[in-house]
Structure formats: structure tokens, C-alpha cells
Amino acid sequence: MPKYTRNTGKAWTSSEVNNLKNLASENTPTRVIGLKLGRTEAAIRTKASEVGTSLKPVNQKPYTRKK
User: Fold this and answer.
1) Tens of pLDDT, residues 4-23
2) Contacts (Cβ under 8 Å, ≥6 apart) of 7
3) What burial letters (b/e) apply to 3-25, b meaning 16+ CB within 10 Å?
4) Where are the domains of the chain?
5) pTM across the whole model
């Protein structure tokens, strides 16, 4: 958990939600999104779930097969 959470306990603004969606679509790690938005990682995961945004990286394979 980051030591500096400037927005903890405050309501989410529409611009913060848009930033969350943009950062998630760019495959930004959850912890980095939290630092940029001043929120905890748990808050980022909760809000992403509420707005229907996936935090999973879309450009990475789930596993690597070696033959």
C-alpha cells in the first residue's frame, strides 16, 4: 500500500474514472495506476470492477508452451 494516498476516502470523479479506464487499456500495472490516481491498489481493483474495466493485460499470453 502506498504511503501517500491523497484521494483515500474521497468520491471518484468522472475524470478519475476515465483515467482509470485509459491506464487499464494501456496495460498499466494496478499498483502504478494507484500511485498515479492517489488511491490504494484495493480501491483501484474495486472501482475497476464497478465500472466493468478489466485490469488483466490483454497483450500477454496466459502461459508459455515450450515444445
Assistant:
1) 567 877 889 999 999 999 99
2) 16, 37, 38, 39
3) eebeeeeeeeeeebbeebeebbe
4) 14-51
5) 0.75
